[in-house]
Amino acid sequence: MCCDLKRRFLLLYATQKGQAKAIAEEIWEQAGAHGLEADMHCMSETDKYNLETEKDPVVIVISTTGTGDPPDTARKFVKKIQDTALPPDHFAHLQYGLLGLGDSEYTFFCNGGKTVDRRLQELGAQRFYDTGLADDCVGLELVVDPWIDGLWLALKEAFLLQKEKEGMSSNVDAVSSSLSAAPDIVHELNLSSEVQNLKLEDGGVRNSDVRTQKLVDINLVASTGDTEPSLVHSVPPVSESALNIPALPPEYIEVEFQDTHGENPHLSSLISEGTTFEVPVTKAVQLTSEDAIKTALLLELDIADTVFDYQPGDAFCVICPNNVNEVEELLQILGLSEKGEYFVCVKVKQGTKKKGATHPQHIPERSTLKFILTWCLELRAIPKKAFLRALVECTSDAGEKRRLQELCSRQGASDYTRFIRESNVCLLDLLHAFPSCKPSLNLLIEHLPKLQARSYSVSSSNLYQPGKLYFVFNIVEFPACPTRAVSRKGVCTGWLAELVAPLLQPNKNTLDTKGGNPSTEKISIFARPNNTFHLPADPSVPFMMVGPGTGISPFIGFLQHRQKLREEHTDWEFGETWLFFGCRHQHRDYLFKQLKCFLENGTLTHLKVCFSRDSSTAEVAPPKYVQDVIRLYAKEVARVLLKERGYFYVCGDKKHMADGVSDAVVDIISMEMEVDKLEAMKILAVLREAKRYLQDVWS
Hints:
alpha/beta, Rossmann fold, six-stranded parallel beta sheet, six-stranded antiparallel beta sheet, 24 strands, globular
């Protein structure tokens, strides 16, 4: 079909870390094979599209960031459409389909997409295709792939409807034939996060796959002894299937090696989120005993000579490097060990077929190769299927090539989830597992995402300790396993632990700031204010805090701040305060035993603790987890939260704690208010909306 007959649709994406953009690019690439032209733009490029006058269908791919916020690139767009002066028929002319990306580990799942979807509906826009909500917790591809499959038929129907409205029925047949490659699938897809209902293990080849995906059929016979699949080995039916693999992403980056003269850019140039501050680490304390399961460290930063400001409850970000040994190892595998200190110039490849190819914002125009691998690329990122597809072309061994094809194919979807995603496999793991794979440097720059700064809760009050900032973290450990040959520490926590090792004071378990060795080690940080996770504006309002493990971190700041306010304002009325804390062992990881000081001076009204792994000789076993303790104080929780209009804060692990706490609160509301569970859930939702039930959680 001639290019001038291709039907156009507008394709908008809003991304925070690049996933929405990558999915939009996949849609753009497939569109041509379906006789369509995708006019693709970032949502922030408002000078390149106009929804007020848009006549063609609109496809939107949008992620969610923070606590349910739209990504930065969508904020102006969202603000514009949320103008209350807009009439209810403002977008009555608009047909759209929306794919939202999110993570069900967090409370406001896919809220960025839901916000745009809801507002477009309120302004009269019509969906030509069901909204898809993809869950990064279980794998975006489980919803993204079938959603894209169904998009082409939905667009076909939208164009036919458009033709009928325009009275141009004579051209309907031409449009139909141009889209004949679209898969004949049911339009009504269940695209909720209930991904278990999606049947993706389709052994056949869809018609639509022929033009966008390469048919692979290399029947390598597995040895009879290997009956279980692994990262490097498959079993029937995958090992015997013809595979539907993604189209090969076009290369768009070229790297030119230069000399060894010059200076690398300052770390602040890598950050667009705000002002960076280079601050010294002045103290480090190990809060846990040597035999604790996890090692928790408390660090003190000196911010006295900066304008860095924060409130208790805020978070901040640490700019961290990749592990130096992993960088050296990668250079060796790439055959570039001698080139690490050479400056490289990264450019967009001339004549690339990649739509809208631009220089990656997180890669400096000129820096050393080692700087890029150390500070710019997330070497630990879980490889996406498009990356695996590109790695296939760099692999010489036939068996290894076939296995990589399987892992990025539709037929190997469950293997990808099990051996790549759930095993937290990274690029180095793959290169060890598939030694004949020798990717080029430009391929890594194209496919590895930006190395993200790591976020931590502030564990202090600037009012209580001016010029100081404290934070607490567990050193993350990734043990060796079948898919990971060596054990590793977390990118940032491992680096910080190594950095402060000379400062470390073992197991003092205190916030006493006296002593400590002077340090010349500095780290770069920038603010990440939290607009809601703060103390009540009215000090007379009671509040409850739930923070097991390192989840207690922001509440230390809360209590320090409250203590200082009580000292400075003796005439004020202060509401009661509750803290529910839990850990494994009382004598190994009770992080802040001086909590009793807050209790003794009246800053903290009630302290309830539990220890999940300590044995007990009591006739009635004590509660093990904070959610169990909360249930023991049901009447007090109901009184503070419902009768006295208090606040309820939860900080810590989402899946294993925060969900259990919210379930306990729902049960308490149901019991104390004598309503059914559904009504209790609605009441909790109202409390969340009113910002009186607040969470700062992580997965």
